[in-house]
């Protein structure tokens, strides 16, 4: 018997609508802020790397206690507060630009603080989704969410690059302020009751918090599929962060692309994300819901070596678009499948802490990769840095293949 579509669920549609809006804004400002730093404020490769690193540093610093804290409370109010905090912080960027006092250090500070709010949102969101639609529909739910996010990823960079060239990056950031407010309103309208977490005797003090954090770490440590997912994701994200630190500089200064052309190149490379997100349930049925995790990375990883082959001129930039597109395709299929696997095999009372543990292990690679990418960009140049990144990406699927060899579907990993 087929599982009913989560789109028939009113509250899931609200969650989807809010995320569609905020993700679209994130993609627009995601291209606008680096361009603002590089083209308007004259950021160096190292400063661009620090900017890329600062948005994810909070995962390494507060991710574990945030997960334990989220398991103590209902998750929807946390998500709403995180959206409102990010809207307020981002609003300072266009305000500072209007007053003529915007600097790269302010961009880094805003990225750091919005990163804190993002920690609580990301951990809470991944823990909240099963409560809205049920564990039996998380793969379909994640696929729908990522399809919407991919739509923004496809349209957002091109529009963001064009708007940045037309209005300036600071004005474009204001778009995301509005989208976070819309997301908060959509979350506030959800009616599905979220059960209060079961109280745990003695749940007070630092000692208890440390014990709860250790429980999440222990579950990940003794679960081979989660250990392998953490290793593969951390390496993939490290490589992505290394590339992100120099990619705008590579496209703007090495390939001599305009802001609008950069946005279009990124959007064209991201077009495969939309198809990949929509096709993941079908691919999971064909290849296996567990096997697809490592297979997606193994098939698409080698195409990343096309990116540093790009040269000035639209013909050669086809290498750039093809490399980005293949990488985005593999990552979106892997992301949906691996998060769904985690949500299905983790007990609900541990889900917040396990999500936080995984996010710390995974996202902790971003700030390190951003700094390494910035330093490599300064020392060896953007093209050489992208070659290093492409070579390392080929190693990402190996831990997953080893842990999941012989396993086709997630159901084989469940107890009993």
From TrEMBL:
Domain Major facilitator superfamily (MFS) profile: 225-416
GO cellular component terms, semicolon-separated: plasma membrane
Alphabetical list of InterPro entries matching this protein: MFS, MFS_dom, MFS_trans_sf
TM spans (from-to): 12-36, 48-67, 88-121, 166-190, 230-252, 258-280, 292-310, 316-339, 360-379, 385-404
GO molecular function, one term: transmembrane transporter activity
Membrane topology: Multi-pass membrane protein
Keywords carried by this UniProt record: Cell membrane, Membrane, Transmembrane, Transmembrane helix
Any Pfam family the entry gives: MFS_1
PROSITE patterns named in the record: MFS
Cellular compartment(s): Cell membrane
PANTHER family assigned: INTEGRAL MEMBRANE EFFLUX PROTEIN-RELATED, MAJOR FACILITATOR SUPERFAMILY ASSOCIATED DOMAIN-CONTAINING PROTEIN
Record protein name field: MFS transporter
Taxonomic lineage: Bacteria, Bacillati, Actinomycetota, Actinomycetes, Jiangellales
């Amino acid at each position: 018997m087929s599982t009913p579509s989560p789109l028939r669920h009113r509250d899931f549609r609200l969650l989807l609508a809010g995320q569609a809006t905020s993700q679209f804004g994130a993609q627009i400002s995601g291209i606008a802020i680096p361009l603002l730093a590089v083209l308007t404020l004259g950021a160096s490769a190292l400063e661009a790397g620090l900017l890329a690193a600062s948005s994810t540093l909070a995962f390494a610093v507060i991710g574990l206690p945030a997960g334990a804290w989220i398991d103590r409370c209902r998750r929807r109010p946390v998500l709403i507060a995180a959206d409102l905090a990010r809207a307020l912080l981002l609003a300072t960027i266009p305000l500072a630009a209007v007053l003529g006092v915007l600097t790269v250090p302010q961009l880094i500070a805003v990225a750091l603080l919005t990163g804190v709010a993002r920690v609580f949102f990301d951990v809470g969101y991944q823990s909240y989704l099963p409560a809205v639609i049920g564990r039996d529909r998380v793969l379909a739910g994640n696929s729908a969410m990522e399809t919407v996010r991919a739509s923004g990823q496809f349209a957002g960079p091109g529009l963001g690059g064009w708007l940045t060239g037309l209005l300036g990056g600071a004005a474009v950031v204001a778009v995301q302020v509005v989208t976070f407010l819309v997301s908060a309103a959509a979350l506030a309208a959800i009616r599905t009751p979220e059960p209060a977490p079961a109280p745990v005797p003695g749940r007070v003090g630092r000692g208890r918090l440390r014990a709860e954090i250790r429980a999440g770490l222990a579950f990940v440590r003794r679960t081979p599929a989660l250990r392998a997912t953490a290793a593969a994701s951390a390496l993939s994200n490290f490589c992505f962060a290394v590339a992100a630190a120099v990619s705008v500089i590579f496209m703007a200064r090495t390939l001599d692309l305009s802001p609008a052309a950069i946005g279009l190149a990124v959007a064209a490379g991201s077009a495969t994300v939309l198809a990949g997100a929509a096709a993941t349930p079908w691919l999971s049925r064909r290849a296996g819901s567990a096997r697809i995790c490592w297979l997606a990375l193994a098939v698409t990883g080698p195409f990343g070596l096309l990116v540093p082959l790009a040269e000035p001129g639209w013909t050669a930039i086809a290498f750039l678009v093809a490399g980005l597109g293949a990488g985005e395709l593999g990552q979106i299929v892997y992301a949906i499948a691996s998060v769904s696997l985690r949500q299905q095999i983790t007990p609900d009372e541990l889900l917040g802490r396990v999500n936080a543990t995984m996010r710390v292990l995974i996202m902790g690679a971003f700030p390190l990769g951003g700094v390494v990418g910035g330093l490599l960009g300064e020392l060896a140049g953007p093209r050489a840095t992208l070659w290093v990144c492409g070579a390392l990406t080929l190693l990402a699927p190996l831990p997953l293949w080893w842990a999941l060899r012989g396993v086709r579907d997630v159901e084989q990993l469940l107890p009993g």
